[in-house]
Amino acid sequence: MYAQFFGNYLLNNNAVTPEQLTAAIGTMGHTHMKIGTMAMHKGYMTAAEVDEVCFLQTREDKRFGEIAIERNYLFEDQLEELLKSQSPDYLLLGQALVDAGALTNNELESLIVEYQDESEIDDVSVIKGIDQTAQLIENFLLAAERPVDQDTITYLKLMFNSLVRFIGDDFTPLSPVTASEYNPNCFISQKITGPITCVSSIDMEEDVAIAFASRYAKMEFT
Questions:
Q1: Does 146 have pLDDT greater than 60?
Q2: Which residues on adjacent β-strands are paired with residue 198?
């Protein structure tokens, strides 16, 4: 999730253009190593075990490592080793931008330091898998001078985690704005009632909606 909010930070600071960011995110997606792949490579898990954990993630709001440990597919020290071997994903995004010539290494270094400072995150926490998504979302809303409350943070955290898990991580949230009216294209809406009442909606162009559905169902739609 850090790379997605780092992308928002880069756009807000005019460090890159939307086109440069989109291209870099696409490149990063081909190089990102997942824990399951590394666990298979190390011989810690079989392909069937990795597939099972990935399936269980569609039913439980838990990280891959949490489920793998619960199922006794990984030991805690093995997971720790795999996590340490990962680079923070926002560094991968930064490297993709440097490779594309959108940033220099010096610019990236400064931007990383500023991003970590403003987001109140550090590499050690990220690599150890400490979930700081709530903090990122709170900072995201505060930077846009939007109202912040725990229910909004919780809902957005679940939404962003679901997007990454079921659709993909090749996106960047744009700063939130107030819209007095909106003309939808392909549109779906959900209303929640109870102690908390809210309405959430997703709208896309038709070709994007088809691609979105195809990713979620893992089959091609026309």
A1: yes
A2: 192
